[in-house]
Give the backbone structure.
Amino acid sequence: MNRFSKQSGSSSEKLTKRHYRIGEVSAIADVPASVLRFWETEFKKLKPRRTSSGQRLYRKKDVETVLVIKHLLYQRKFTIPGARQYLKMTTGKKKGRPNSALTEVITELEMVREMLKKPV
């Protein structure tokens, strides 16, 4: 598991199930189900499977992605486009993947640039 997984109080248990419904993921991540549905539209990496009746089934990696997105947006104060770019840069193919420390520096600098663009 990565360093972002399992950060909220209700998510201190390990992810042991194969699939989680949206209500369970909502409780694990401590965000409303509507936020999870919105994030699905904003982040291509977040694609839960659907049952024949249309219910979302999140895999372990989907739940971990939700926790990373929550960390980026709520703790690190990324914008949605910034978080999208960060995820794109840190989850690329191993061959062309930038060094994670370099990626973090680049992301931080981009955030500073965005803050400087805003009027005071």
Summary: The chain has five helices and three strands. The helical segments are 22-29, 33-42, 60-75, 80-90, 100-117. The radius of gyration is 15 Å. The domain at 9-117 is CATH 1.10.1660.10 (Multidrug-efflux Transporter Regulator; Chain: A; Domain 2).
